[in-house]
Amino acid sequence: MIITCFKPTSCPFLTIELLLLVLLMARFGKLKFWKGGEVKTILLGKHEESQVHKLAIEPGSPHIFYSCGEDGVVQHFDLRTRSATELFTCLCVDDLKGYRPYVPLNAIAIDPRNPNLFAVGGMDKFAQLYDIRKYKWDGSSDFGQPACYFCPQHLIGNEDTGITGLSFSDQSELLVSYGDEFIYLFTQSMGLRNPPFPSSSFMVSMGSDTSKVEPGSIASSSSMDLDGKNAPQVYMGHRNCETVKGVSFFGPRCEYVSSGSDCGRIFIWKKRGGELIRVMEADKDVVNCTEPHPHTMALASSGFEYDIKIWTPKAIERATLPTNIGQVCLFHSVCIEIHILKNLLIAFDLMAWLDPVIYEIR
Question: Which value, to the nearest 10 degrees, does the dihedral of the CA atoms of residues 123, 124, 125, 131 take?
Answer without folding.
Answer: -110
